Amino acid sequence: MVDVHDDAKGGGYRRLEILTGPGRRRKWSDDDKARIVAETLESGAVVAEVARR
């Protein structure tokens, strides 16, 4: 984690997390991918909400 002091935005601190390398990527099975896509196609579904979950 890196703390960055930003005087331009109120003088507070904010955190910035930097992820590096391919090790942090999720590996989704084909069944999981199909389920997620099907969920986004349901009536009233909001893609951003499905993505957040």
> Low-confidence segments, ≥5 residues, pLDDT <50?
none
Measured as a percent range, the helix fraction is 25-40%
Shape: flat
What's the alpha carbon Rg, rounded to whole Å?
A: 18 Å
What number is the mean pLDDT?
81
Instruction: Please work out how many helical segments DSSP would assign.
Output: 2
Number of domains: 1
Helix/strand order, N-terminal first:
EEHH
Tell me how many strands there are. Answer: 2
Question: In percent terms, what proportion of residues is strand?
Answer: 15-25%
Strand order within the widest sheet?
1-2
Main sheet overview: 2 strands, antiparallel
Description:
The chain has 53 residues and is of the alpha+beta class. The chain has one domain (2-52). 32% of the residues lie in helices and 15% in strands. It contains two helices and two strands. The protein has helices at 30-40, 47-52, and strands at 2-5, 13-16. A two-stranded antiparallel sheet has the order 1-2. The two termini are 24 Å apart. The model has no long low-confidence stretch (mean pLDDT 81).
